[in-house]
Design a protein that fits this description.
Blueprint (H helix, E strand, L loop, with lengths): L1 H23 L3 E2 L11 E4 L7 E6 L4 E6 L3 E7 L5 E7 L4 E7 L2 E6 L4 E5 L7 E3 L7 E9 L4 E9 L5 E8 L12 E3 H8 L7 E7 L6 E7 L2 E5 L5 E7 L7 E6 L5 E5 L7 E5 L6
Antiparallel strand pairs: 1-18, 2-21, 3-4, 4-5, 5-6, 7-8, 8-9, 9-10, 11-12, 12-13, 13-14, 15-16, 16-17, 17-18, 19-20, 20-21
Length: 279
């Protein structure tokens, strides 16, 4: 009975925290160092990007993005939201995108990766994830130290420990046989201070200045900061009023953070948080 009361109290505290977050207009609870809610910019996206599911900041200040179902790369102006479109493939369940060199790499939910030449429409190579389909992916990011793409699980039955990752080599164009690292569920619970918290990663990106990995979860409305080998260093709740369905994250070279939301009973958005270290 005492254990039940303890978890009920934790649940009440979590709900209270999220409610206070919404009432006060805060984006992150606790406050995210270097970023301030008052500095954010909201970019409303066209209906063609209603199901934006992944994005990557390009060197020319545009953002490459994809949506859930169409084989298209959208190049979005990071200030205005204006965009152009390039088709590469047929309808699939696309989840994330990065651009390295002359190629976009697009992740499917089953782990398959599509390599799409920049500037060449209707062209792609597909690399099939070799393991059985017990893993669902929504997250792809590039680790410059490894010089590899990293795939992060949303749901998986490989282990009972939590989030697992695999790599894809840009040299050999091969997937790793072994797990790169794991983020244990109990460690996520400890940092979020809730033993019942859900955290199913929907996107991740490496901060260009601090070199920390930021992982967001639409299911769970939370964000983690970790080392590049998955050790958790910080955790934040996301304001559900501002992040109804956070599905993408990317950074500008100066540290400005962009988080995209699929449209939920409304329009899709990208929220830009300006990096102000030391303030």
């Amino acid at each position: 009975m005492k254990v039940t009361n303890f978890f009920f109290l934790l649940y009440i505290l979590l709900v209270t925290s999220l409610s206070a977050c919404s009432r006060q207009g805060k984006s992150f609870v606790p406050a995210l160092p270097g970023y301030h809610t008052a500095d954010k910019q909201v970019i409303v996206l066209d209906k063609e990007l209603l199901e934006i599911s992944g994005m990557y900041y390009l060197s020319d200040t545009r953002i490459a993005a994809i949506n859930d179902e169409e084989g298209k790369v959208f190049l979005i102006n990071s200030t205005t939201g204006d965009y152009t479109v390039s088709k590469f493939g047929r309808k699939r369940d696309y989840e994330d995108v990065v651009m390295i060199g002359d190629y976009y790499y697009v992740l499917e939910s089953n782990g398959n990766i599509h390599r799409v030449p920049v500037g060449t429409p209707n062209t792609e190579e597909e690399f099939e994830f070799p393991r059985d389909k017990k893993i669902e992916f929504e997250t792809l990011y590039y680790d410059p130290n490894l010089q590899k793409l990293v795939l992060m699980s949303k749901e998986q039955r490989e282990t009972k420990k939590g989030v697992i990752t695999y790599t894809f080599s840009l040299d050999s164009l091969q997937f790793s046989d072994n797990i790169l690292y794991e983020i244990r569920r109990k460690e996520i619970h400890a940092h979020l201070k809730d033993n019942n918290a859900e955290f199913k990663p929907s996107a991740a990106a490496i901060h260009p200045i601090t070199h920390k990995l930021f992982i967001i979860a639409s299911v769970g409305k939370a964000m983690l900061q970790t080392t590049l080998d998955g050790k958790i260093e910080g955790a934040w709740q996301l304001n559900p009023d501002q992040f109804p369905q956070p599905e993408g994250i990317t950074f500008a070279p100066n540290g400005d953070m962009f988080i995209s939301n699929e449209g939920v009973n409304g329009k899709a958005t990208i929220l830009r948080f300006f990096y102000r270290p030391g303030k």
